[in-house]
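It is worth pausing here to work through a concrete case rather than discussing structure prediction in the abstract. The textbook approach is simple: state the sequence, then state the predicted structure, then interpret. We follow exactly that order.
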Amino acid sequence: MKKVILTATLVLAATACAATAQPVRWTTYAIPETGTAVDFPASIFTEQSSKPDGYGQRFRTPDGRADITVQAAPNVSNDSPAAFLAKKRPPAQIQYKRVTSRFFAVSSYKGDKVWYDRCNFSGRMVHCVLINYPASEERDWDGIVTRISLSLRGD
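Step two, the predicted structure:
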């Protein structure tokens, strides 16, 4: 009986968060045209999705429960991070917001998902990573999102 309960618990745990069910295999995703690069969990986001505006790529998990966009676009108006963010009209209920002279990072909840956006500013380019994942798995994603966010760079 204990073996059945333990097995069921392990299966449920693995199903609840495939993001951490196996060791994460990291690689670097780069956008050659812009110099944008980021540590990328290739074992989680295995499927390409649509192209974003500017340069980059969207990826998702095989079951579609989480997605990531790595993107770079010209900062046509040469906006500061604060001005750029204001033009995007983020929702008023932002849970986390950090704005500096070189980047912004914002995060909140939308339905049953957590969304996280970080954009770094260099020269006349904006280098961004946008991640959406289940709110029920928020703790499991914390380390992954942190590594991705802190690794974002661009020329």
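Step three, interpretation. Residues 1-17 have pLDDT under 50 and may be disordered. The chain is about 25% helix and 40% strand.
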